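Hey L., structure's done. Input below.
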Amino acid sequence: MGDVVKPKNRRSKRWLEERVPKVHENVKSALFIRGGRTNDTVMKALKDLHALKKPDARMLQKKNILRPFEDQTSLEFFSQKSDASLFVFGTHSKKRPNNLVFGRMFNHHVLDMIELGIDHMKPMQEFQTEKCSIGCKPCLVFSGDRFDQSEDFKRLKSLLTDFFSRGYVDKMSLRGLEHVLSFTANGDQVYMRSYRTALKKSGGKIPRIELVEIGPSLDFSMRRSHLASEDLMREALKQPKELKAKKKKNVGYDAFGTKTGRIHMQRQDLSKLQTRKMKGLKEIRKKRKLAAESDSHVEETAFKRKKVA
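Output:
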């Protein structure tokens, strides 16, 4: 156990409070790290991804000679220093040209990493269109069966969702849906496209939506991966007790999603139940009373005859 750090002033106190575990965690920030050897394609990809992640992003301009799949101490140091749980590391070499490593941290330790190679790229500058506002929440679209079949692609989908999400959204207006990110899996390749929504007149209340590509356009190919174990992943996905929904007694849902409830009542005495008074029922009661009296008279005379005999 490390020593407890006591703040010396208000600024350091706020700095420590931001890093304290919370029930509702902050938006995850990302580090964009430049490797020892890069080229123009890798730098443009890092800058465009950094622009999509703003303002929850930080770009390290200096070169950093790192090997994430061999030694992860430098990445963990950068993560703890900047309080960032996501990172993208870009390099270029003869063996692995145009290389990007996407990764995330858990408790400032590397949880999982996936290495992608850039096969084709069209940067954001080549799209002469209006861009989205900074900090807007994108709509993520994943297409392809590989995202549900392959373990590497499942983890890539989870990593990209963590990377581009900006917190949980309960409701959103149609005008708030401004940015769309599409990821399509085909074989070992992943196609990333970025669109801006344009609302057009449709002749009714609901407008017609058109997608305008704003870049960047990236074609990735899957390379190496470093996935966390099931136990570590289960620990990273553990939720606090405050966020778990409390089970309500005697309340359930059927197959169609209809809410049903169960009510417990004491046993009722139906003989004392007051029914509606009707004229038709009075005749029936009279007949029943006369029938009961005649039956009792018949039984009484039979009993007397039997006694005399």
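Residues 27-227 form a domain with the Rossmann fold fold (CATH 3.40.50.10480). The chain is about 30% helix and 30% strand.

-- N.
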